[in-house]
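Sanity check. The docking grid for alpha-D-glucopyranose depends on where the pocket ends up, so I'm generating a full predicted complex first rather than guessing from homology. Inputs follow.
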Amino acid sequence: MIGEAWEHLRRSIVYFRGNPVGTIAANDSAEEVLNYNQVFVRDFVPSALAFLMNGESDIVKNFLLKALRLQAWEKRIDNFTLGQGAMPASFKVLHDPVRRTDTMVADFGESAIGRVAPVDSGFWWIILLRAYTRSTGDHSLADMPDCQRGIKLILTLCLAEGFDTFPTLLCADGCCMVDRRMGIYGYPIEIQALFFMALRCAKTMLKQEAPGNKELLERIDKRLNALSYHMRNYFWLDHHQLNSIYRYKTEEYSHTAVNKFNVIPESIPDWVFDFMPMRGGYFIGNVSPARMDFRWFLLGNCVAILSSMATSEQAEAIMDLIEERWEDLVGEMPLKISYPAIEGHEWRIVTGFDPKNTRWSYHNGGSWPVLLWLLTAACVKTGRPQMARRAIEQAEQRLSLDGWPEYYDGKLGRYIGKQARKLQTWSIAGYLVAKMLLEDPTHLGMVSLDEDRNMKTLMTRSASWTV
Ligand code: GLC
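Predicted complex below; grid placement will be based on this.
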């Protein structure tokens, strides 16, 4: 299966003027192509990790540099110009057989369904640049003035001051892996965890002595402190915390408020009470005024572990919960992108009647094999390789037989997704990365950061207001 996966992965490589620059999203000729013949930034990450772990770093370097060139383009949607730092969701190489040249087109959201700009692309780019540096020991790429500028442009976008009262990033629906309306607008966990990780990765690569960098590094530190405080306190949910929220008083005013965001306990959905084990916990999907999205999302929780946004106790608890709720979250095909699915009236309102995101399908509680590499990395980090092994074995029973689908449907992930592409590259690469991580846990360093002991972890409620 490993040999077969490598063959497919190599067949998905995209070349630009003779050099490999990425992998296409899916190699499925049976389904309508749409934009699956493009190189997606987020989809390339597991491909890149597989290549790095295999000692093939050229394609990753070329990709990082190409994405940087694209960042420099002027990005317009109708008459509006996007921030300079924005990175594309995807790009496409066009071959002109007559003139025998290649050109590139990138999508920053202006062609994407729903016209949403990807907030995650820039973060993944920074995270991948650090992975490349760690894996090859080659600091010259990250040190290049162009790369330093690229990092700064991305950070400028997300560290900009505005009307925000929270250190988290305010986002539109569909701005990350979940790239269509799914009710994740606000402060989605996926973006907050990637933001945190990207800030920490950037810190290791920005040159201290360059002009302006001292101030920038100070801003990064401040933001990391505030962000970790906010996430560890307000996004964290375990049995104890759920019980506190259940007993919240509302309409509290002033600095002594316990229920700061005025969450109405009646808005807690019934399923959470059953889902929450006595042992375990997780970062919930979203927190904003009077709104807590209690859904569980895998990507954000795993990235929280890898970046050490989660304290070590929280990391253990996240893994405990996955173990306790194995049937729901892993089922017959790892892994649920989110849990649970939304249905009925709520589905109509939240997704806008989206026929692709029906209950237990696609982004709405579907099962995505690509997520296997994130689970495995989190397992290795928390010293639970046997858990990853179990999930991988589960996937191995069907993944190749089914033709490496993009996602599976159903409560247990038993059915190949209704509109899932076959030969989906990140399903293939995610499997390879999971296998290689288990075999050689030293690869973990590429995608993991140790806990920063200087980060304040005051976990007392009502203490965030400083006069
Ligand atoms: C879907 C996914 C998105 C992915 C793209 C290409 O739109 O939601 O996360 O990048 O397919 O595979």
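Relevant for the grid: Residues 460-467 have pLDDT under 50 and may be disordered.
Also worth noting: The chain has one domain: 1-446.
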